[in-house]
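Ops channel
N.P.: pipeline sanity check, posting one input/output pair.
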């Protein structure tokens, strides 16, 4: 099996988690709320809103379990690409149906691992307003529960060195929601079933984000 088609390294993801712990806690003040809702074992899909460039590393460094994120191939350049592969992240070509990325992501879940997805597809408002169907596909295909996570950083411009990052040493809240199943229990994998699952997922994620903002005052 070639390097591109082999499963992401579980050991690498564990190393990435340790690196994330040191890096994120050194630069910001992460606070995890509801982390106990994360299943201790078995396949899990984390659905994360995407507002800051640190959302992925922040979650990797604070999640109770190692996470394999789907990350756009544009990030895999030079030493950074080598590093991301080494810590078990999944490279994905967003311009097409990337069969290799799909196989590797499903392999993470089949092996009982944690797959991290930004269902909005790219960094934006972080409000789950526009979801892609990929999250529904992985959830319905694998049967893994989805755990919503809201990453909420400071919205103030003061103290920011880079606009895409929260101010250094500011608090970043990571709020976990209850696990839920995306499917309707029928086992259907048709386009209509995935569209229906996407609607259900969006409702659950939006409700969680609203509750997380209310709980944190963000």
């Amino acid at each position: 099996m070639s390097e591109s088609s082999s499963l992401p390294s579980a050991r690498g993801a564990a190393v990435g988690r340790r690196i994330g712990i040191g890096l994120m806690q050194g630069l910001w003040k992460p606070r995890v709320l509801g982390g106990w809702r994360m299943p201790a074992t078995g396949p899990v899909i984390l659905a994360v809103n995407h507002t800051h460039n640190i959302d992925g590393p922040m979650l990797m460094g604070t999640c109770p379990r190692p996470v394999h994120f789907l990350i756009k191939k544009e990030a895999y350049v030079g030493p950074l690409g080598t590093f991301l592969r080494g810590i078990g992240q999944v490279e994905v070509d967003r311009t097409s149906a990337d069969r290799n990325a799909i196989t590797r992501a499903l392999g993470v879940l089949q092996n009982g691992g944690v797959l991290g997805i930004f269902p909005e597809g790219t960094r934006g408002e972080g409000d789950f307003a526009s979801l892609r169907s990929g999250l529904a596909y992985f959830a319905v295909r694998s049967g893994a529960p989805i755990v919503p996570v809201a990453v909420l950083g400071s919205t103030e411009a003061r103290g920011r060195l880079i606009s895409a990052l929260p101010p250094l040493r500011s608090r970043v809240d990571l709020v976990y929601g209850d696990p839920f199943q995306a499917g309707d229990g029928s086992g259907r994998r048709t386009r209509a079933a995935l569209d229906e699952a996407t609607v259900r997922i969006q409702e659950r994620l939006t409700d969680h984000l609203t509750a997380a903002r209310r709980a944190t005052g963000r």
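N.P.: looks fine end to end. The two ends are 46 Å apart (CA to CA).
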